[in-house]
Design a protein that fits this description.
64% helix
């Protein structure tokens, strides 16, 4: 049985499956990229002060700052699109979808940061958590509402084109007045 407002048919199922596979693939990549041990001569102490490493990145020049901040924004940004794609619903509250997706991205980023405490050469950085969460929120805001609107319009057009002329209503169906039953 289909959920109300979900992408219908076998195409909908394949879209959700593809979204789920891409979601898992991206999570595996992000885990590999952020949790691999680094061979470095020393490790910086953990950053638990918000915006401290962003301020430091800005002192390195605009190109290096753009590379580092953009990397933080882009690491988990695809999750902002992949979570709703794997969920597969077209008619959902935009605010609820945004909050649910952003919270999931924040929790995954928090999990990565907590796992980095045990990885040699990696350090915990609260700014990474902030940048990853903002990246998920931006990707969701920029892509998902427009894609859902486009898919809803496409499905509506396809539904209207699939109606045959005999399916179009001719008005109210005549009714027969009720007759009482004899004792």
């Amino acid at each position: 049985m289909q959920r109300e407002g979900s992408i219908g048919g076998s195409a909908g199922i394949s879209v959700r499956v593809a979204g789920g596979v891409l979601l898992v693939a991206h999570l595996v990549f992000a885990a590999w990229y952020t949790l691999r041990p680094l061979d470095v001569p020393w490790v910086m102490p953990p950053n638990v002060h918000p915006f401290a490493s962003i301020r430091f990145d800005l002192t390195l020049g605009w190109q290096e700052a753009a590379r580092r901040i953009g990397g933080g924004l882009g690491l988990l940004a695809p999750l902002g699109v992949l979570f709703p794609l794997a969920h597969g619903r077209l008619t959902v509250s935009p605010l609820a979808s945004f909050v649910r997706t952003t919270a999931a991205g924040a929790l995954i980023s928090l999990g990565i940061e907590l796992l980095q405490t045990g990885v040699p050469g990696q350090r915990v950085d609260v700014d990474s958590l902030l940048l990853n969460t903002v990246g998920v929120a931006l990707a969701h805001t920029l892509c998902v509402p427009a894609a859902r609107a486009w898919l809803r319009r496409r499905n509506e057009r396809a539904w209207h084109h699939s109606l045959r002329p005999e399916d179009v209503t001719q008005g109210r169906t005549p009714t027969i007045p009720r007759v009482g039953i004899a004792p």
